[in-house]
Amino acid sequence: MAESPAQYNTIEPKKRVPKRILHFSDGILEEFSTDEEEIEERKQQQEKEKQQQVADPSAMSWVPWLVYLAWVGATGTLSVCDAAGEKLAWWLGITSPKYYYEIQEAKRMQREEEERKGKQDAEMAGWVGEGEGGLVRSQEEVRGQERSADPAPSPSP
After folding, report:
1. What confidence score (pLDDT) does residue 17 get?
2. What's the CA gap between 32 and 20, in Å, rounded?
3. CA–CA separation, 133 vs 127, rounded Å?
4. 94 falls in which pLDDT band (50, 70, 90)?
5. Distance separating alpha carbons of residues 152 and 96, to the nearest angstrom
């Protein structure tokens, strides 16, 4: 007799699939569910389905059945129209704020103004007089004051 390959003789354990995979900045966390949790989830789904079906259409007489059928059809139609209306509104662009582009423009202008002030502060860092209340002086004025404070020896005639 020929022996069967080893792959048919071994029983491989069932591969566990994680219930949730959480991504963090320092790694990944995989959460596995237990058998009890799965059974509990199935029971909850079955109870939810039973609660959703309020009336049993097979046990109704003609008039209540027609009312029930009209109600189900109307709610289904309403949900389809609602979804189609949302898509149409999105496509037409009426779901965005009325002045969204102006809000974005104002934010952009504020950023540019802050950048301009930052550059101006960097350029003017050495030009502000400390004892003069923060007044900006020109380069010629600063040189003139330096000359008057430090008179150079003039040649004698």
Report:
1. 76
2. 7
3. 12
4. confident
5. 71
The alpha carbon of 79 is separated from its chain's Cα centroid by a whole number of angstroms, namely 27
> pTM for the whole thing?
0.34
Give dist(CA 146, CA 155) in Å, integer: 20
Question: Is residue 141 packed enough to be buried (19+ CB in 10 Å), middle (13-18) or exposed (0-12)?
Answer: exposed
CA distances from 24 to 28, 29, 33, 59 (A): 6, 8, 20, 53
Reference 31, options 15, 19, 44; nearest CA is 19
3-state secondary structure of 118: helix
Query: 28 with 22: CB under 8 angstroms?
Result: yes
pLDDT interval class at 80 (50, 70, 90): very high
CB 108 within 8 A of CB 100: no
Any idea which residue has 């020109």 for tokens? Answer: 138
Provide mean pLDDT across the span 123-139. Answer: 62
Q: How far apart are CA 33 and CA 2, in angstroms?
A: 42
